[in-house]
Amino acid sequence: MFGLMVRFTCKDEAAAVEFDELVARTGVQIRANEPGTVIYTVHRVDGQPLQRIFYELYRDVAAFETHESQDYVIHFLAERNKYLASTEVDRLDFVSGKGVDVER
């Protein structure tokens, strides 16, 4: 398994609305086209209205690379920066968890 945790901070509230719309459009495509993407969740942060946390879990590095090569992900990556003040990315090495039925 391979994962990411990404913290995005939007520029302002208007940018957050636009970013959320971009995320929603991209998420539809991810759910429909990526069997190797095990979990792809987006969260608002309580008390931090401009922050979003993405938790992404992929079957393996190859599934992540497939995800990154999709046209809709390339579009998301190209568009996101006009809405964001900052981005922090942590790569995760899966140890264990509940609800994940994928062999290491």
What is the typical, i.e. mean, pLDDT? 94
- Poorly predicted ranges: none
Instruction: Just give the CATH class.
Output: Alpha Beta
Question: How many β strands by DSSP?
Answer: 4
The CATH architecture classification is 2-Layer Sandwich
User: How many helices does DSSP assign?
Assistant: 3
Strand content: 35-45%
- Please give the largest β-sheet: 4 strands, antiparallel
Q: If strands are numbered along the chain, what order do they take across the biggest sheet? A: 2-3-1-4
Percentage of residues in helical conformation: 25-40%
Ends: how far apart? 6 Å
Q: Tell me the series of helices and strands, N- to C-terminal.
A: EHEEHHE
Structural class: alpha+beta
What's the CATH topology label? Alpha-Beta Plaits
Keywords: Monooxygenase, Oxidoreductase
InterPro entries: ABM_dom, Dimeric_a/b-barrel
Protein name: Antibiotic biosynthesis monooxygenase
GO molecular function: monooxygenase activity
Keywords, separated by commas or semicolons:
globular, 104 residues, monooxygenase, 4-stranded antiparallel beta sheet, Alpha-Beta Plaits, single chain, alpha+beta, monooxygenase activity
Indicate the topology:
Blueprint: E1 2-10, H1 13-33, E2 37-45, E3 48-58, H2 61-69, H3 71-80, E4 84-92
Antiparallel strand pairs: 1-3, 1-4, 2-3
Helix pairs in contact: 1-3
Describe what you observe in this structure.
This is Antibiotic biosynthesis monooxygenase. It comes from Streptomyces sedi. Keywords: Monooxygenase, Oxidoreductase. One of its GO terms (molecular function) is monooxygenase activity. Pfam families: ABM. The chain is an alpha+beta fold. It has a single domain, classed as Alpha-Beta Plaits. The protein contains 3 helices and 4 strands, in the order E-H-E-E-H-H-E. Helix 1 runs antiparallel to helix 3. The chain is globular and about 40 Å long. It starts with a strand and ends in a 12-residue tail after the last strand. 12% of the residues are buried.
